Amino acid sequence: MPCNAEATTQAAAILLGNTQFGTMSHLRLLKLLYLADRRMLELTGTLITYDHAVAMKHGPVLSDTYNMIKGESLSADLWQRHIHKDGVFVTMIDRPGRDQLTRKNISVLNDVQKETSRYNDWELIEWMHETLPEWIDNWKPEEGKVHPIPLEDILSALGIAGEEASQIVNFYRFERSALRAAS
Fold this sequence. Notes:
It is globular, with a radius of gyration of 15 Å. It has one domain (about 5-180). A three-stranded antiparallel sheet has the order 1-5-4. A three-stranded antiparallel sheet has the order 3-2-6. The chain contains nine helices and six strands. Helices cover about 60% and strands about 10% of the residues. The protein starts with a helix and ends with a helix. Helix 2 (about 25-45) crosses helix 5 and helix 3 (about 65-70) packs across helix 4. By secondary structure, it is mainly α.
């Protein structure tokens, strides 16, 4: 199931554009995008990427975004026109614009990046391991496999429940369905 590839690429470009050389590890980029989506859920009940999260060894990951970075997605060509992967690093090579992002999306992306700047990549992962209940509850180290992180678990960790959570989940499913139909 596809994420909103255009919005995801634009969000990644915002984050990369804030770095000195437009480069960061793909690991850090994945963490920042996850945290930005999580913050958008908390503030507005919407997402930037409409990607689905999974629990992996190094923390939560947006699955479709990770596949775009690896070139294993139908949207990989869009990503690769703007962002180049070289080993563990990604670099913005062309600005994709911002038309898929709201001012709030951009503000959240910038805030998350600023708030996590004190951590190196591994400290960021450790902090996420210690503080994100949705990863803690869904990571199965004995199996060493990828496990979905249900949107309901993220909402619960944010203290969003009941009818509000149901509405958010239904809207998320609608958006994902529309993205799938458009691809």
